[in-house]
Write a structure and sequence with these properties.
Length: about 140
């Protein structure tokens, strides 16, 4: 039983090294009702960048961290045309309060810093993907 402790610690270290989790605080109302200002989230640097996933990205204009939802992925056709390789359209769940891809356009995959896994404060929970697919484009 004593040998299990170091083994578990090593496994946890490997998982942390691979996923490289980080935390981020939600600011503003752009992700309401899913997320609220003051919510603290855990995101990982690795993860599937799928339609409907909530991600942390660098604003392409200011570099400021944004929390948005992936609405369209490479190959999807948006009103502006087909998204190219490594291009994602990210939007807020609350369009009237969101500065997002509808304003600054699709972002490169490299701008996406992580995939949100869960909220840990002030309320605990996972992040639903239910808001995905609201756009007027077709999937590629």
């Amino acid at each position: 039983m004593r040998r299990l402790g170091p083994l578990l610690a090593a496994a946890a270290g490997i998982v942390l090294a691979v996923l490289r989790p980080f935390r981020v605080e939600v600011a503003g109302r752009s992700m309401e009702p899913t997320l609220r200002a003051g919510d603290w989230l855990v995101a990982t640097r690795r993860g599937r960048r799928a339609r409907g996933a909530v991600v942390v990205l660098a604003d392409p204009r200011t570099g400021r961290a944004l929390v948005k939802r992936i609405e369209a992925v490479p190959g999807d056709v948006t009103p502006e045309g087909e998204l190219g390789p490594d291009r994602y359209l990210v939007v807020g769940d609350n369009p009237s309060e969101s500065t997002d891809g509808r304003e600054f356009g699709p972002v490169r995959g490299g701008a996406i810093e992580g995939v949100v896994r869960f909220r840990y404060a002030p309320r605990i929970g996972t992040i639903p993907e239910a808001q995905a697919g609201r756009g007027s484009w077709r999937q590629g």
